[in-house]
Amino acid sequence: MTDQSLAVERDFMPPKIIYGLYAVGYFVGITYLAGVIFAYISKGKDEVVDTHLRFQIRTFWISLLISILSLITLFIGIGVILYLFLLVWGLTRIISGFLLANEGKPVSGSRYLGILAI
Asked: Is-above-0.70 flag for pTM?
């Protein structure tokens, strides 16, 4: 037996689709919501794929919290800075997570204030 015959074939298509929905969500907000619903539905089939799904679900809820805080503080000027942070934070999480899923690797954590998936 070779190492290749022992390899488990994992389906990383759901996390890839969700990362795509999140990216499109910056232009069409409803796809961000569709992505988190799809993440909840896809959970529980493979523990390696589930690392991406948990990462994506956390990304959604943290993004929602930062968006609400940004909206509340918009009138004093801090909201604009928070929205810019959210833009960079979210896109970096989406891109780094997608690259890991594309390589077939799990999300083992994050670095730099939760910005970069590792």
From this structure: yes
Question: What are the pLDDT digits (tens) for 14-73?
Answer: 999 999 999 999 999 899 999 999 999 999 999 999 999 999 999 999 999 999 999 999
Residue 110: strand pairing partners = 117
What is the 3-state secondary structure of the chain? CCHHHHCCCCCCHHHHHHHHHHHHCCCCCHHHHHHHHHHHHHCCCCHHHHHHHHHHHHHHHHHHHHHHHHHHCHHHCHHHHHHHHHHHHHHHHHHHHHHHHHHCCCCCCEECCCCEEC
Q: How many CB atoms lie within 10 A of CB 56?
A: 28
Contact indicator for 118, 108 with CB cutoff of 8 Å:
yes
Q: How many CB atoms lie within 10 A of CB 60?
A: 21
